[in-house]
Amino acid sequence: MKKLKYLLLLLLIPILPLFNACGEPSSKLQDSFEIIINGKTLTLQDEKIIRLDELSIENGLTVNVEENDFIVTANYYNNSQSDAVQLNLNQAFYQVEITRNSFLQVTVEDDFKNKIESTIYLAPEDLPRYEAQGESVGDNNYYFTTYQASSDGITEPETYLMKVSRKGELLYYKKVQGETYDFQKVITTDKKVRYLYIQSDRELFNKEDYGINASLVYAKVVVLDENYNFVQELVYDYGNGEISGVELHDILYLNDNHYIMCTNDARTLSGEDIPSYMQGDRSQNMYVVSCQLHEVKDGEIVWSFDSMDYPELYAYYSTEVSDWTEEYIDYMHFNSLCLSNDGNLLVSFRNISGIMKISRQTGEKLWLLGGAGDEFNLEDSFGHQHEVTQLSNGNILLYDNGIFGEVSNSRIIEISVDEQNRTAEIVKCYNLDLASFAMGSVTKIQEDVYVYCYGVPIPQMAYFAEMDFSRDVVNFSFRLIDFNVMYNVNYC
Fold this sequence. Notes:
mainly beta
């Protein structure tokens, strides 16, 4: 009888691994296995290398697995020479860094000794390298894109959205196909968190369809939620089945159903429509880019502004051109807008070196500050400015690029405006170290402390800084090593 019992035990031994600790049948590992890293599902295969193209670690790095029949380990390495740090599954791990060389080594094994080992790099190989120094005096983060235009004007470049902490830590990145601009965080009127960026899309909006510079018309606005999940894309809908790309510099996003955007249109002037002061052979047609603003709410257009309703604006064009018949002239060049303290709009138009106030009731021009059309007798004017905002004290804050060739340095300026008496004066002015030919931005954090981005400085350098001008101290600085242009930086 004992021999029979031993024989039965021997027969049962090969069967035992088919059951797990709960007495249930064990699962056999297949050729692939799914894990979830910070909400994103990845499929692992043995010896497969994965590189993420988007990641947020502001709430830590978490590895989740839905299948629990297997032994799963995940080790974090800052680089190939660093020591491994094992992550606890389904729990946040906070002490990680996003670099080109940081990675996870994930191993999955079943009871039959089948194994999958996979390497997951936390970023693409071309993740921008950067240098950061110091610490912001504020509590916000820095948002920007890596500006990179294609060399041939046709191929869509790959660019990055980047979110950096007040100490210079990379918190979030997203690799995007096409030029991207104006990455920012918005708190909507209904208290939702939204992230926005403006992305070029040459397939959707072809340059030849418009007859003007594609960079003015081929963009769309991409909206993400608080977890960076897609919410919607915005283009301009004329309401008759026709859509248009938006101008890629800026948008005012109030909520998911309410926003103010800019579009451009190619227009032809001929005969009596050509003002007498326009340059070139006036017996021929002349071509201009009409700049249009639209407030859209619940799918309906509340009002629109069209620069061509004000033909006097042609005369304020501040960039030299030999002949208006040569090409479509972007005589306005919208680049920034904000709500004024009384609920209307302040809009920066680079090529007329002016800030225009526009009514949000009618869309009409209320006044113009700066440039050849200045209505406020501003003595020390500005040129080719970017990033207009109105401060709580009523001052208008500008990043003054300066009129190229006449001003040696770009400036941060605050302008006090008396709208009733039509007077204005620059009440604060800070000269920067470089002249910026285009782009750029400025945000005021506290008295005499500003975050500024050079845009396209000379010499070129993708750089922004937080400066305390009262103490002549740079609190924080950031430079992209592999790029020489940065469109703007949003501190929010």
